[in-house]
Structure formats: C-alpha cells, structure tokens
C-alpha cells in the first residue's frame, strides 16, 4: 500500500544510539558528505520545503533524524562527513553517532537501504 505523503513528521532527533526508535518500521538511510544534499533530497521525496533542515553551510545536521512516513517507514538523515568547519571533537562525535547507527541500532535488521549521495564535479 502506498504511503500517504501528507502524513509525515520528524519522529526523533537522536544524539545517542539509545534514542533511536524502538518501533520496527523499515528504515531507508541517506549518507554522504556534508552539504551534499541529503536533507534536500528528503524534502524533495516527501514533497516538502522545510521538513528536513537545509543550510548552505556544511555540518548543520549533527544528529540522526528519523522522519516517519505514514507509520510505514522511516527516512533517516545521517550527519554528513568531510569538510564541515567544526572542531575535531565534534567531527569525532558525529562519526561515532553514525557508526552507532550501524553497530548499535537495535533495529538494524529494519534498515532496508542506504543511499550514499556523492557530489559529481566535472573538471575540464
């Protein structure tokens, strides 16, 4: 059955693995460098402008955000990696949180897909 895209919300903003959702909905995660467009893609897929926070400055997503799509699945916005101007300690914490999503997620078997976004730059 097709999910109702009018019934979408930010369910959980997790800064620690113990905050990941306990319910067993399928998960689709979006991964990539800082500022590659993960949050923008989620907004586009859900036909929203401001559900997932978007910024022109890299490194704004510092938590793992779970978007509930009609109680049928979660779209998961992972923190970016790469060139965000943040302290090494912050980058290390983000890396540990993202690693925890894959290693400390009690519902890792609900993860159905990881979409790795990449920048495509052409040089002439």
What would you say this structure looks like, in words?
Helix content is 19%, strand content 25%. With 124 residues, it is α/β, with parallel strands linked by helices. The radius of gyration is 14 Å and the shape is globular. The mean pLDDT is 87.
Task: Give the helix/strand layout.
Elements: E1 8-14, E2 27-32, H1 38-45, E3 64-69, E4 73-77, H2 88-103, E5 111-117
Parallel strand pairs: 2-4, 2-5
Antiparallel strand pairs: 1-3, 3-4
Name the CATH homologous superfamily: P-loop containing nucleotide triphosphate hydrolases
Number of strands: 5
- How large is the share of residues in beta strands? 25-35%
* Shape descriptor: globular
**CATH fold label:** Rossmann fold
**Sheet with most strands: strand arrangement:** 1-3-4-2-5
The total number of structural domains is 1
Instruction: Assign the structural class, choosing from mainly alpha, mainly beta, alpha/beta, alpha+beta, or little secondary structure.
Output: alpha/beta
For the largest beta-sheet, the strand count, sense and barrel status come to:
5 strands, mixed
Helical amount? 10-25%
Would you list the SSEs in sequence order as H and E?
EEHEEHE
Distance between the termini: 46 Å
Number of helices: 2
Roughly how many Å is the radius of gyration? Answer: 14 Å
As residue ranges, the low-confidence spans are none
The CATH top-level class label: Alpha Beta
CATH architecture identity: 3-Layer(aba) Sandwich
Average pLDDT level: 87
Short summary:
The chain has helices spanning 38-45, 88-103, and strands at 8-14, 27-32, 64-69, 73-77, 111-117.
